[in-house]
Amino acid sequence: MNSRKNLNEQPCPVARSLDVIGDRWSLLVVRDAFDGVRRFSDFQRSLGVARNILSDRLRRLVEAEILAIQPASNGSAYQEYVLTPQGEALFPVVVALRQWGERHLFAEDELHSELVEKRTGKPLHFMTPQAIDGYDVSPKDTEVRKLS
User: Fold this and answer.
1) Which residues pair with 80 in a beta bridge?
2) What b-and-e string marks burial along 100-109, b requiring 16 or more CB atoms within 10 Å of the CB?
3) Fewest Cβ atoms nearer than 10 Å: which of 11, 102, 120, 145?
4) pLDDT tens for residues 76-98?
5) How many CB atoms lie within 10 A of CB 115?
6) Any idea where the domains of the chain sit in the sequence?
């Protein structure tokens, strides 16, 4: 059996982030949580994932403090999974993945879901990294300073 290498000791923020949210199901759970999904059965219905995989991903996301468990808002005996502030901070990551997918994975006339601002009903501006002074930055404008 392949054991997954733990990346939480790595000095790279990308590696540590991927260790927590770097698989398909975890990110899709987070995406659904942003869309208002809160209950296990609703996540399972939306994702079509096996119960054991979903249980594992929800447990990991709770342990990583991306989701929290709380009593159901309707007063029933069920519990709900809600995004924590740390989980809500993943919103730009989900939006960036969505926008990349819109640009590169769909034909020009192909229909797809659309993320819009509630206030205006219009799509979000395309996200780009910016320097501290507000200018757009490309990969050639940056470098990673590795630990010595």
Assistant:
1) 70
2) eebeeeeeee
3) 145
4) 888 999 999 999 999 999 999 99
5) 13
6) 13-141
